[in-house]
Design goal:
Blueprint lengths: L4 E3 L9 E3 L2 H10 L7 E5 L5 E10 L4 E10 L7 E7 L5 H11 L4 E6 L9 H22 L6 E2 L3 E2 H5 L6 E5 L20 E6 L7 H9 L3 E3 L8 H15 L5
Parallel strand pairs: 1-3, 6-7, 6-11, 7-8, 7-9, 10-11, 10-12
Antiparallel strand pairs: 2-5, 3-4, 4-5
Amino acid sequence: MRIPRIYQQSDFALNTIIRLSDDAFGHIVRVLRLSLGDTVILFNGKEPLQYHAKLIDISKKKASAEIISQETVSNESPVTIHLGQGISRGDRMDYTLQKSVELGVNKITPLFTERCGVKLSAERLAKKREQWQKIVISACEQSGRCMVPEVTEPCFLQDWLDEQSSDLKLNLHPKAKHSIMSLPFSFKENNQQVKLLIGPEGGLSDEEINLANQAEFQDVLLGPRVLRTETASLTAITALQCRFGDLA
């Protein structure tokens, strides 16, 4: 059986005993029904390390584990991708976040655009962001990543475009001259960073595309067919990883 990987916001050290967080306890004991002596893998999202730990104490409300070994995990892509994703309805946004993390995205900013069609109060928005971050953490647990991407506070497209950055900036456009694979561009050493803009259902408006171009975003083509927003995001990320990253 595959050893479960569990995220916990703690500092870990060899041969020490830690108390599992409430979330980790719930998943390990109530969902997976592990017992004394079973092994889990813990990571904190801040360092490229994971820790093998043995469950040594379990009660009705808490559990403790002993850190018995550690290992370095080197599965982060050489290209850093910051995804600006137009907020989509229903579970499409959840799916996009989950799969983009599996593909190696490093940071995600949900964007309010003209056609996003999602209106949330401040309280609901905070809860939604918390839910999105949990989806990202779960994707890291499943995919073997130790570095947890941040879901930043959602913002309006213009504010995101106004952020100063030396990253390669890309926006999808059906009439662009170049694809990601044919774009005449090469990174400077140690600066392989991309800001990728993806619109919601219905895409970006002409005005928003013009604003992106003014902010030095380059239009790129994904092919002759119209893609749904979640398909477009994952296809673009895959192309970036094939061109600049670690997908051969």
